[in-house]
Specification:
It contains 6 helices and no strands. It has 104 residues and is an all-alpha fold. It has one domain. Helix 1 packs across helix 6 and helix 2 packs parallel to helix 5.
Length: 104
């Protein structure tokens, strides 16, 4: 007989572990944008920042780590998305280069 797995038994999925190159990050952000949900986009940008290192992203953007963490929470909603775009400006050039010639 197959054992039923309860939700609390499942390990929490962390997408930042799989965002290990610019192409993966560009695809991930593109899909979040296509979804159209500002909360999902904020969460995706938070995952990208965690994958790259929150401290590094915060320093590059001139923001605090706390501001980036707050902006990346799904409950932050649309008001946090512009803040996060500021936080991700350090990665913008690499993502644009990766996306050249590809439809976003």
């Amino acid at each position: 007989m197959t054992k039923k797995i309860e939700l609390p038994e499942l390990a929490e999925f962390d997408p930042s572990k799989y965002l290990d190159d610019d192409e993966a990050i560009a695809d991930y952000i593109r899909l979040a944008i296509e979804d159209g949900d500002p909360g999902l986009l904020a969460a995706a940008l938070g995952n990208v920042a965690r994958a790259r290192g929150m401290t590094q992203v915060a320093q590059s953007a001139g923001l605090t780590r706390e501001a980036l963490y707050k902006a990346s929470k799904v409950s932050s909603g649309i008001s946090s998305v512009p803040t996060f775009f500021i936080g991700e400006r350090a990665a913008e050039a690499r993502i644009q280069k990766t996306c050249q010639g590809r439809a976003l």
